[in-house]
Amino acid sequence: MKKVKRLETDVLIIGSEAAGGRAAIEAEKHGFKILIITKGLVGKTGVTIQTGLTINAAMGFRDPRDNPNIHFEDTICSGFGINNQKLVEMVTREVPERVMELVSWGAKLDKDADGKFYQCLQPGMRYPRSFYTRRVGKEIVTGINNKLNKLKNITILKDTFITKLLKYDRMIVGATAINLKNGEFIVINAKSTILATGGAMQMFSSTRASLDATGDGYSLAYRAGAELVDMEFFQFYPNNAIEPELWPGRGGDRARGRAPSLPYHRLHTRFYNKQGERFMRRYDPLRMEHSPRAIMACAMAKEIAQGRGTKHGGVWASIAYLPKNVIDQMLETAPWAAGHIRSVEKWTDPRVNAVEIHPVAHYYCGGIRINEKCETSLEGLYAAGEVTGGFDGSNRMPANAISMCLVTGHHAGKSAAERASILKSMPSIEESQVQAEFDRVFGLLNAGEGPRAYKIKIELQDLMEEYAASWRTEEGLTKVIQWITHTREEVIPKLRLRTDTRIFNMEWKHALEICNLLDCSEMLSRAALMRTETRPAHQRGDYQYPDDKNWWKNIIVKLRNGDMHLETKPIVTTRLKTIEEINKLMKYEAEVEAMQPRWWLP
Amino acid sequence: MVAPISEKKFVAKVFRFDPSKEKEPRYETYEGPLVPQMNVMDVLRYIYETYDNLAFRVSCGGGSMCGICRIKVNGKVGLACTIPATENMTIEPVDKDKVLRDLIVES
Fold first, then answer.
1. Closest-approach residue (CA) in chain B for A453
2. Co-location of A296 and A169 in the same domain
3. Does B19 fall in a domain?
4. Within this chain, do residues A258 and A168 fall inside the same structural domain, yes or no?
5. Interchain contact B48–A (C-beta under 8 A)
6. pLDDT tens-digit map of A82-117
7. Chain B interface, mutation test: which of A139, A182, A501, most B Cβ atoms within 10 Å?
8. Do A497 and B53 touch (CB under 8 A)?
9. A271: β partners
């Protein structure tokens, strides 16, 4: 092993944004040495910066009836009862404090004329709860970084890619990484390690999410032997324009994400299938297009799978049913809406025509299994943010993502610091693990003729989109699993790069990322194959109904004796002890929500 | 309505430099189809997937959200994901003196 750099730290945090950044702030309070690693640049890499508009905290500024208990219940309803209720209690109870703290660090959230914060109503909420600003991701990053920059004991390594978690017995003792700037191999020894690496949206070709969302954390945790939960539940956002297609080659994220669409629940947009039927009446007659995202994404996927989709494989979204003068007056009072209309107008007039839309990969509900202290099943390993599983259940409520990142970040930072204070000395590293990882990583840095990482990624994305998105069958999922196994065993070892430079070798990074994506895709597909029922966010074409009796439980995925092992565990409950109780609450929630005015900003 | 995909082509002259392998920077010319609403980020990704292991920064992938893809096109600095692609482009790093490789600069 040439050129190995060795680092020691009390707390290692992988990921630098809403969850990782927040964890660092907390851990630093206790006076420990913190090392943050990001594979890109702070404030620019990852998905936090992409956050659209809103953060949930039940503070009742616009409706005093709202409170953390109702936020808890709504989150369970949105997650179709699959959620870890202890995590939901924790997040909903603590998020008001986390959001206000973020504001005090300089994040600007919009206020009404009366000086109180805006809070808007989104699908799945009984009362308006979402704090709003046009670029909320930017504000979160600003708040976190303002605070981070003032702290002394924090070192940040940018452009550094973590390749493996190092294990000693059942304990995580650090990680290996490569510095993308010069190809240097880094061995980090840490008392506690926090994973805050975000989602894995790049498994699917339809996604609009960051190209960094390659599921690194899920794969790192899995390969280290940690338990992951709810990996079959992947949220698709039910509203992304698919026409015009921009790229002459394939569709993929670059094309499908570009054409602007009509905001759905914010503009009273209606969905139609190719026969002109407003199909949501068959899936959620009470809320129609204000239904939870997973119900709508599954509804669309079913319409398309059963032959009622549009020519380009989508459904229609339209506001053209509203008279022109109604639309005009509506837009006069809402500049944000007028902006959306103008961008759609560049290619079609939404007052006259519908837009062709399609659900796109948006958020990974499942992830690393944690408890309320953000401890994983491995000693010394903590997780925060999207990479965790359990909070969202089978479907995330709009605006709950950042809420969860901030609260789990806070707890992960605290728990990691506590462990660092208990450990007297730095845990040992097994050098054989370091050597094996060095060989794997530099084995991929090999120029010549052979399969290319980016081509494998395209193949994987297309396959996942077709068979593992919102319409899954045993046949399709089996095909995906076979392909993954074949690719991992036969193709990855033959991977070659077009250049073996060690300086910002993007292809090298892509090769490492595709290995992570293969792990995530296999976990998703195997868990999806096991869950023989339909529960929104997981729709089985061959098992089209929910089966509470057999499937009101979580699927746990872990590596055992070199193989992917799946088992079920009962749902972690607190107040809502039975699925009957939850089903009753879901019905009630929908009724209350259906009575709310549907204009989301004042 | 959107114009039909034309037979137009882009020709991009791109700054290339790998200090670990080359003494001097050079410019490489790449061609590809120019389609409506195509931006410089699309051009870079097209080059990466069609021709060579070009180094450039990308994160959010479009929509000027993350701001990581700052670049110089025909002498003007901007975000690759918002600058429209044209028939003839010279694509360079924002500061040639701070280049780490190709279009990536020290930041």
1. B49
2. no
3. yes
4. no
5. yes
6. 999 999 999 999 999 999 999 999 999 998 888 999
7. A501
8. yes
9. A317
- In this structure, the answer to whether residues A287 and A224 fall within a common structural domain is no
The answer to whether position B15 is within a domain reads: yes
What is the complex's ipTM, to 2 decimals? 0.93
Verify that A460 and A348 share a domain, yes or no. Answer: no
| Pairwise CB contact (< 8 Å): A506 & B53 | yes
DSSP A537: T
| pLDDT (tens digit per residue) in A356-380 | 888 989 999 999 999 999 999 999 9
The tens digit of pLDDT for each residue in B4-43 reads 455 789 999 999 999 999 999 999 999 998 887 788 998 9
Q: Which of A302, A307, A272 is nearest to A544 (CA)?
A: A302
Q: What is the CATH number of the domain that holds A500?
A: 1.20.58.100
**B20, B42, B102 ranked by CB distance to A247: nearest:** B42
Which chain A residues have a beta carbon less than 8 Å from that of B18? Answer: 499, 501, 503
Token pair, residue A287, equals: 């809320």
A224 and A264 in a single domain? The answer is: no
Residue B3 domain-assigned?
Answer: no
Both A531 and A438 in one domain: the answer is yes
| For B4, nearest residue in chain A (alpha carbons) | A244
Kindly indicate the confidence band of residue A246, based on its pLDDT and cuts at 50, 70 and 90.
low
Residue B101, domain CATH: 3.10.20.30
One domain for residues A93 and A225: yes
Q: What is the pLDDT of residue B37?
A: 75
> How buried is B78 (Cβ within 10 angstroms: 0-12 exposed, 13-18 middle, 19+ buried)?
middle
Residue B2, domain member (yes or no): no
CA distance B75 to chain A (A): 24
Peptide bond preceding A244 in cis form (omega within 30 of 0): yes
Where do we find the tokens 């510095």? A179
Contact call for B38 and A503, based on CB within 8 A: no
Whether A353 is covered by a domain: the verdict is: yes
Q: In this complex, do B48 and A506 lie within 8 Å of one another by their Cβ atoms?
A: yes
State whether residue A540 is helix, strand or coil. strand
CA distance A358 to chain B (A): 18
Q: What angle do CA A267, A270, A273 make, to 5 degrees?
A: 150
Is residue A248's pLDDT more than 70? no
Cα distance between residue A423 and residue A412, in whole Å = 17
Query: Cα distance from B36 to chain A (closest Cα, Å)?
Result: 7
Residues A218 and A247 in one domain: no
Asked if residue A572 is part of any domain, the answer here is no
Considering CB atoms only, which of A135, A211, A506 is closest to B61? Answer: A211
Instruction: Examine the fold and report which residue of A362, A389, A409 is the final residue of a domain before the chain moves on.
Output: A362
User: Under an 8 A CB cutoff, do A504 and B102 touch?
Assistant: yes
**Residue ranges in A423-505 assigned as alpha helix (H):** 431-443, 453-467, 474-486
